[in-house]
């Protein structure tokens, strides 16, 4: 029987399937169900830096005592922050008490300010690893790319000062030089990189004149975006890579592992199909490995990466003309 174990962030997983940070991972009950379905690990729903700041501001602005007693502002701010963080720390502790699979915490962050001190408390609560979901939208025309990208390095370096557990970063492909930036980030001491994070996609309701959400869940067609970059970066960066976005079945799992991912993160397919999709993905992987006589995942991870592929130029092709030339 095929051995599905993989090593990601220096942690041995019983298989490469990780349920990513989402509403699927915001309670102990849901995570117990995910473990029973067979997932190799779980990333808890993110603690949002923006959410914490908003809650602090909201609590302060709604309190009449602030106007009567100015010193109450500090008390309310600290209490609100503590309450938000305490709930998250309790989630980590309770999950670790109930499940045996690795439990990874997640912080969605946009700066390297005071929140970085939370990282140590997350470690103390028992998290097996910490994933930093970082994205700075390059929307300010007055800010150059180097300034945007420096924020990623500032965040990573501040967090690495606080913890000894493995740290990974979940990034987007919105970089002026993705390959170089990914390589430089891998030199910082992080243990992993997740390609790629998924964002709120805006739409417009033309009758209500409101901005709404669209494409909340990924599709299988989106696999190609991360697949290209997993293949191109997996043998070049100095950390593990996990693939994310567009992985909806066992076929997608195999493709990303062949490209060089040590693990994959899934969410949309679990939302759509329930946790029953997890054993199906595991079964497909196991059968595929037996069919091709691979005894362990290490036997084929990266077999189709840019470095190992017989046609690496295919990953760099960006124009359709050559591909469709001669097709009637």
Short recap of the structure:
With 328 residues, this protein is an alpha/beta fold.
Describe the structure.
The protein has helices spanning 28-37, 49-61, 65-68, 72-98, 118-124, 145-162, 178-186, 223-233, 250-259, 268-273, 277-291, 313-316, 321-324, and strands at residues 6-8, 11-13, 17-19, 41-43, 47-48, 103-109, 129-134, 167-171, 192-195, 201-205, 210-214, 240-244, 263-266. It contains 13 helices and 13 strands. 42% of the residues lie in helices and 17% in strands. Helix 2 (49-61) crosses helix 4 (72-98), helix 8 runs parallel beside helix 9 and helix 9 crosses helix 11. Strand 1 (6-8) and strand 2 form a beta hairpin. The chain has a single domain (6-324), classed as TIM Barrel. The model is unreliable at 63-77 (pLDDT under 50). The protein is globular and about 50 Å long. It is α/β, with parallel strands linked by helices. 39% of the residues are buried. An 8-stranded parallel beta barrel has the order 3-4-6-7-8-9-12-13, surrounded by 7 helices. A two-stranded antiparallel sheet has the order 1-2. Strands 10-11 form a two-stranded antiparallel ribbon.
């Amino acid at each position: 029987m095929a051995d599905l174990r993989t090593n990601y962030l220096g942690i041995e997983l019983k298989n490469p399937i990780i349920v990513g940070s989402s509403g699927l991972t915001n309670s102990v009950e849901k995570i117990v169900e995910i473990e029973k379905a067979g997932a190799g690990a779980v990333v808890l729903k993110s603690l949002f830096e923006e959410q914490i700041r908003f809650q602090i501001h909201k609590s302060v602005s709604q309190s009449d005592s602030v106007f009567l007693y100015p010193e109450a502002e500090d008390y309310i701010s600290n209490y609100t922050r503590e309450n938000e963080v305490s709930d998250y720390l309790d989630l980590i502790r309770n999950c670790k008490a109930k499940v045996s699979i690795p439990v990874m915490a997640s912080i969605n962050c946009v700066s390297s300010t005071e929140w970085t001190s939370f990282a140590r408390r997350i470690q103390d609560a028992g998290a097996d690893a910490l994933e930093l979901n970082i994205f700075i939208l390059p929307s300010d025309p007055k800010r150059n790319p180097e300034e945007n990208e420096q924020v990623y390095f500032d965040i990573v370096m501040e967090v690495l000062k606080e913890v000894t557990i493995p740290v990974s970063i979940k990034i987007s492909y919105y970089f002026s030089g993705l390959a170089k930036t990914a390589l430089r980030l891998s030199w910082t001491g992080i243990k992993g990189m997740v390609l790629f994070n998924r964002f709120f996609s805006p739409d417009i309701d033309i009758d209500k004149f409101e901005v709404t959400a669209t494409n909340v869940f990924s599709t299988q067609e989106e696999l190609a975006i991360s697949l290209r970059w997993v293949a191109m970066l997996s043998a070049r960066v100095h950390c593990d890579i996990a693939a994310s976005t567009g992985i909806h079945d066992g076929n997608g799992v195999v493709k990303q592992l062949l490209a060089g991912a040590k693990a994959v993160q899934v969410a949309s397919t679990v939302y759509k199909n329930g946790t029953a999709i997890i054993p199906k993905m595991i079964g497909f992987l196991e059968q595929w490995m037996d069919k091709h006589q691979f005894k362990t995942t290490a036997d084929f991870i990266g077999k189709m990466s840019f470095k190992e592929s017989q046609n690496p130029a295919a990953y760099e092709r960006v124009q359709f003309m050559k591909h469709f030339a001669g097709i009637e």
